[in-house]
């Protein structure tokens, strides 16, 4: 039971970090594409 809780918590933290980095990466790509167009 304890292993399941730890695995679930680790997965939640991993997904949260992945989502944050994904947003930052997408924002950087959009900024670069906009600067190239202009």
From TrEMBL:
Highest taxon of source: Eukaryota
What name appears for this protein in its UniProt entry? Dickkopf 1a
Starting at the broadest rank, the lineage of the source organism is: Eukaryota, Metazoa, Chordata, Craniata, Vertebrata
Gene from which this protein is expressed? DKK1A
């Amino acid at each position: 039971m304890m292993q399941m809780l730890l695995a679930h918590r680790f997965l939640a933290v991993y997904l949260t970090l992945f989502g944050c980095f994904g947003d930052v990466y997408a924002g950087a790509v959009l900024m670069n594409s906009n600067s190239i167009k202009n």
